[in-house]
Amino acid sequence: MSAAIYIHIPFCIKKCNYCDFSSIVFNEPVKDRYLKALMREIEMASFAGKVETVYIGGGTPSLLTPSEVEKIINKLEQKFHLLHGAEVTLEVNPGTIDLPKIRELRNTGINRLSIGIQSMNPMELRFLGRVHDETDSQNALKWISRYFDNFSVDIMYGIPGQDLEGLRDNLKQVLGYNPPHISAYELSVEKGTPLSCMLAEGKITLSTDDDKIAMYELIADLLKAKGYLHYEISNYSRKDYHCKHNMNYWMRGEYLGFGASAHALIRETRLRNTPDITDYIRLMEEEGRAVVEETALTDLDRVNEEVFLRLRTDRGINTDTISAAPELFHLLEQEGLILKKNGWIRLTEKGMLLSNRVIVEILDSIEKTTDISTQNRR
Questions:
Q1: By the 8 A CB rule, do 358 and 347 touch?
Q2: How far apart (Å, rounded) are the C-alpha atoms in residues 135 and 142?
Q3: CATH of the domain at 45
Q4: Is the pTM for the entire model greater than 0.90?
Q5: pLDDT in tens, 220-257
Q6: Which range, of 227-231, 249-253, 301-305, 362-366, averages the lowest pLDDT?
């Protein structure tokens, strides 16, 4: 399997109410220093394998100019063996792009865009703290669908005040632009965000579990009826338009990460850069390395990760690679949560809905039945 590269661009116009990612408000001088540090990190990397995907995320990478994006891609091409036709994705916010910028991006080496729409409803967008409105979203979808064959749309469900009809309307509007890929994420409350403060102060009420289940089922049913493949818990695509970059993560392929908070998996070792942007710049300028955590994975770590990641997808996992009790698989199959075939198991639609429970039960079974050593950490 070829490797993947992730590039983190941590700048936003403003933080969304639900966001706990490593990001700061855009600042031109800081951005210039950050990009220099990023280029140095790429230049100093050592990796001889082939690279099949590049993903530039954030933050709001579309705040960069097309020429800055192109410089990053050119540096990657000079340093690594990017395969011909490699999938190269840029995350974009509808409030930070226009038609000329989209045209220019098409000539930088970017061949896939991931658009953070989240909602087409103005009240929901204001609640989420997004910097764009529904008109920005409509324009972005219109322009992007004209100039890019491959693009993905992010939508969110479980937003306070959202109902099934509102969610259905969001989906119908997005589907009007025939996106090859759609990611549908449940709104989650992360510690330290404005959303968590609003919840603690009693200013908002979250959707009930029953409401979120109904929304999840609506999304799955509607998109499958439109010909989309439900290939991962939160992801749907037309045939041949799975996100190759994310599939590499879920299949536990190797990947390199550059930028603040970026992660990597190389030769069964996980590495993590400092999430602090100022600290990242300082470390790269003074020491030439921003890794603050390095973990050599044990065999048990690897097996647990394979279960947790591979079971998210419609490919599932080969039972030969895990040591969970066979009777557990029988019980899960009886409940309609998994399908077993030719030594493989995968989640059913019901299983995807209850994936946390299924995966935890399998991992618990592995812990109880395995004799694999866990003493190889460093």
A1: yes
A2: 11
A3: 3.20.20.70
A4: yes
A5: 999 999 999 999 999 999 999 999 999 999 999 999 99
A6: 362-366
For residue 192, being part of any structural domain is answered with yes
The helix, strand and coil proportions of the chain, stated in percent and rounded to the nearest 5, come to 45, 25, 35
Domain boundary among 228, 249, 270: 249
Q: What contacts 101, CB < 8 A, 6 or more positions away?
A: 62, 66
Sign for the pseudo-dihedral over CA of 171, 175, 177, 178: positive
On whether both 245 and 314 belong to a single domain, the answer is no
Distance CA 202, CA 204 (A): 6
H or E element at residue 264: strand 263-266
Q: Is 140 found in the same domain as 28?
A: yes
Q: Which residues span the domain enclosing 363?
A: 299-369
Residue with tokens 């004799």: 371
How many separate domains does the chain show? 2
User: Which pair of tokens denotes residue 87?
Assistant: 């999938």
249, containing H or E segment: helix 244-250
Going by their DSSP bridges, the two strands 151-157 and 181-186 should be labelled as parallel
29 and 168 part of one domain? yes
144 and 245 belong to one structural domain:
yes
Asked if residues 349 and 309 have their Cβ atoms less than 8 Å apart, the reply is: no
Q: Tell me: pLDDT of 335 over 90.
A: yes
